[in-house]
Amino acid sequence: MTDFFDSDFWHAFKGSPVAIIAFSVVVLLVGGALLAPWLAPTNPFDMGALNLMNGFTPPLTDNAFTGERFVLGTDDQGRDLLSAILYGLRVSLFVGFSAVGLALVLGVSLGLLAGYVGGWLDAFIMRVADVQVTFPSILIAMLIFGVAQGVLPPEARSELAIGVLILSIGLSEWVQFARTVRGTTLVEKEKEYVQAAKLMGLGRFQIMRKHILPNVLGPVLVIATITLALAIIAEATLSFLGVGAPPTEPSLGTLISIGQDFLFSGEWWILLFPALTLLSLALAVNLLGDWLRDTLNPRLQ
């Protein structure tokens, strides 16, 4: 731990106000999501506990019927917006981290294989990546989500909606991981330590796992951070369009979709606060990813 606080990475972090603010925002929002069961005044997923008489209560205003007051107001169902945002953050972050994890595992594995094995396997993987990168990732995610929902029986669609959402976004974001890892692998496999491992009789998969993989994790970390912001936005977009998280477990995108219906009728807070939360999270993660890229890439120093 002492070595970490003496490292160049820590000193670079301390000297960057943007990185400190972005990291603080991410920690605040992630911490709020993790502690939602203890921080949230109510459980917005418990439909039986909702009181429709609390609907459309403005922020910091006593409800005309029940006399209850809510910090961020309520939506049309009487759901406390602060609680809904904290629980919605849990859904959005869970989908984002899971989708990035899937894209990372798939992309790194295919990139290692393409770069180290080469030949027809490299050509096939890269051609698939080239075809996929020509389409916006959100369209690919919508296509995968639609196909998966069509295959599933109707009674299981709502229960498996989150899993299908993770699969859709993960399969639409693996290309950048694969391309980056392939390029790094092409360089690393020609170095002396890899040749020495071959002479020692190590197999392909042992060399890729023990020797090449640790040397490609730096760029992968940067891509994962930036992709996390893209995955969260993709989840919000799909949920906003009504093909993402179910209404019974609303994510930030679902809350924004609900709020948009009441924006022009005067209930502005139903849209504003979830949208600001999503904007703050995506912007902070993006800024943190940009800082990591600049810090971990010596060519940009």
TrEMBL record:
Domain ABC transmembrane type-1: 89-289
One cellular-component annotation, GO: plasma membrane
InterPro entries cross-referenced by the UniProt entry: BP-dependent_transpt_permease (IPR050366), MetI-like (IPR000515), MetI-like_sf (IPR035906), OppC_N (IPR025966)
Protein name listed in UniProt: ABC transporter permease subunit
Keywords: Cell membrane, Membrane, Transmembrane, Transmembrane helix, Transport
Protein family according to the UniProt entry: Belongs to the binding-protein-dependent transport system permease family.
A single BP term in Gene Ontology: transmembrane transport
Pfam families to which the protein is assigned, alphabetical: BPD_transp_1, OppC_N
UniProt source species: Litorivicinus lipolyticus
Membrane topology term: Multi-pass membrane protein
Highest taxon in the source lineage: Bacteria
Residue ranges crossing the lipid bilayer per the database entry: 18-40, 91-116, 128-148, 212-234, 268-289
Location in or out of the cell: Cell membrane
